[in-house]
Amino acid sequence: MFIPSLDTLDNSQVSAYQLDELKKLLVYVSESSPYYKRHFNEAGININSIASFHDFEKIPPTDKSDLQKFQRDFWCVGTDQILDYCSTSGTEGKPVIVPLTAKDLDRLTYNESTSLTCANGSHKDIYQLTTTIDRQFMAGYAYAMGVRAMNAGMVRVGPGLPELQWRMINEIKPTTLIIVPSFLNKLIDYALANNIDFQSSSVTKAVCIGEPIRGAQFELNAIGKRITERWNISLFSTYASTEMGAAFTECEAGKGGHLRPELLIAEILDEDNQPVKPGETGELTITTLGVEAMPLIRFKTGDLCYFDYEPCSCGRNTPRLSPILGRKYQLIKYKGTTCYPPAIFDLLDSEKEILHYQVVVEADEFANDILKVMYCGKPGFDAGLLYKKFKAILRVTPELYEIPEAELVASVYPKSSRKPIKFQDKRK
After folding, report:
1. What distance in Å separates the CA atoms of residue 303 and residue 240, rounded to the nearest whole number?
2. Which residues make beta-bridge pairs with 327?
3. In whole angstroms, how far apart are CA 401 and each of 84, 307, 359, 371?
4. Residue 193, C-beta contacts closer than 8 angstroms, at least 6 positions apart
């Protein structure tokens, strides 16, 4: 198993490396980024005075609203140096264009090859890609480049089409699926319905993207359990975003996604933008290292999580990111109870009689949250039991609406989206 040397150093050595890279980054953006020139000046930041990470914390964070409002001001290079234009999904407002230079593409390739290696991958593997590689989707592009850098094989099937997915599995015999967990469950359902002997297939593991497969303490959540109870394969969770051009990926220990310290400086901040204590939950905030076209400094992702700093049994000393516990701006306050969408997803995923679902939050005339769950279930499904489950586990009783399957599928899997839309926030 390949482990980059930086991953095995102690914290002081990694911090020294990152501080040196940070100083270079601050000089670079102060010379090349219109946004950060203005940002530093308005905040009274003298980059030459930043000699430690304590000094670094004086720089005010940025967030997605800044990217949406001042998009091109973040760019540090001209269009003559940009080789590719990726884009965020736009699920939280205006999509953000993320340009990449040749150096950025090399960085993206390195990230994905080391991430897949962390997920027990090697040149002997054949990966079946079940996500799109077009529509300016960075992840699909990154997977393809990373697999090639590993000298491994790839079957680019793309999203959906269970029949084609299984035909490629049977004909080409891939070892690994790169897949959204909910779609992996659909593949199992299809196999069972069509007498496909998936237990004897060539697939031994799945790199799970886009949705969590673990709970707050790294235990398998409902969808992770549902997969492994039916198919004896290894699951590896990943967390990534287009803005950071990097990923936190699990090793075989399954205890959180490992930080790539040569690519990211990561902080967990509280509501006052102060670092939380080790093990406490806060907002993941990242600084990108090695990015040329659109580097980010103290960028708040909106994702709530924590770091586990204990050395991992795999031999890496890097911090491990917990599953995303919620999105900061998706907190639901419903009849005196608060929760985040992932808790609702986990409850619904545990109900095997539900075929599809979508959670919708609206606001009434008094700005109170209204929680709705749109679902379609198997014939004879008793919605009353679902009400009781919500009340017992989450202590909320949302409005339940049974929707025709075709209508709900069209809403959850719109052609314009690169991933399932399991949550709609209509309060904005």
Report:
1. 11
2. 303
3. 43, 38, 10, 11
4. none
Tokens of 177: 């699926």
Residue among 315, 247, 259 nearest 2 (CA) = 315
Query: Greatest CA span in the chain, whole angstroms?
Result: 68
Question: HSE of 147 in the Cβ direction (CA atoms, 13 Å)?
Answer: 23
H-helix or E-strand spanning residue 55: helix 53-56
Sequence length of the chain is 428
Q: What percent of the chain has pLDDT over 70?
A: 98
Which residue type is seen at 208? C
Nearest to 190 by CA among 163, 167, 158, 230: 163
What pLDDT digit, counting tens, does each position of 27-55 carry? 999 999 999 999 999 999 999 999 999 99
User: What's residue 90's pLDDT?
Assistant: 65
Rounded distance between C-alpha atoms, residue 125 and residue 216, angstroms = 30
Higher pLDDT: 381 or 78? It is 78
Band (396; pLDDT cuts 50, 70, 90): confident
For every residue of 229-274, which 3-state class applies, written as one string?
Answer: HHCCCEEEEEEEECCCCEEEECCCCCCCEECCCCCEEEEEECCCCC
Q: What is the pLDDT of residue 134?
A: 84
Name the band, by pLDDT with cuts 50, 70 and 90, for residue 91: low
Sequence letter at residue 209: I
Phi and psi angles of residue 380, each rounded to the nearest 5 degrees, phi first: 85, 0
Q: Chain-wide mean pLDDT for the chain?
A: 92
Number of other CB atoms surrounding residue 46 within 10 Å? 11
Q: Which two tokens stand for residue 419?
A: 């991933």
Distance CA 266, CA 43 (A): 21
Who has greater pLDDT, 132 or 272?
Answer: 272
Question: What does residue 127 show for φ and ψ, rounded to 5 degrees?
Answer: -100, 135
pLDDT for residue 298: 98
What are 382-393's pLDDT values in tens digits?
A: 888 888 888 888
Q: How many CB atoms lie within 10 A of CB 335?
A: 12
Please state, in angstroms and rounded to a whole number, the distance separating the CA atoms of residues 357 and 375. 4
| Cα–Cα distance for residue pair 265/259, rounded to 1 Å | 9
